[in-house]
Amino acid sequence: NPNLVVAPRTSPTNIGMALLVDLAAYDFGYCSVEQLLIRTQRTFETLTRLERYRGHFYNWYETRSLTPLHPYYVSFVDSGNLAASLRTLTGVMRCFAVAKSCVTWQ
């Protein structure tokens, strides 16, 4: 469809899935462990710049300015999706820390 447009917004679910997409790219051999770590670090650096409500990420952010989008609210579903993605990523990062490399999933 020639009319497709990339929406300039993201959510905690989208951020978590992006982290897992990077992990899958590594797992399938599309990027090196160094590229995975750089992309993951950049994502976490961006997360530190996002405004929050009592420590929780808002549900939608504008991707260019990183400002929350109206109406401001916290979604437990999106927060849970991000938490689940981070738990998955944590296991892989522990593997890297211990082994300095990690075999692909079987």
Keywords:
single chain, mainly alpha, two-stranded antiparallel sheet, 3 helices, 8% strand
- Beta-strand percentage? 5-15%
Strand order of the largest sheet: 1-4
Helix content: 40-55%
Largest sheet: 2 strands, antiparallel
Tally the beta strands.
Answer: 4
Global shape: globular
Integer average pLDDT: 91
Intertermini distance: 36 Å
| Helix-strand string | EHHEEEH
Describe this entry's structure for a reader.
- This protein has 106 residues and is mainly alpha-helical.
- The chain has three helices and four strands, in the order βααβββα.
- The strands form two sheets. The chain has a two-stranded antiparallel sheet with strand order 1-4. A two-stranded antiparallel sheet has the order 2-3.
- The model has no long low-confidence stretch (mean pLDDT 91).
Give a short summary of the structure.
The chain is mainly alpha-helical and 106 residues long.
Topology:
Elements lengths: L8 E2 L1 H16 L5 H17 L2 E2 L2 E2 L3 E2 L13 H24 L7
Helix pairs in contact: 1-2, 1-3
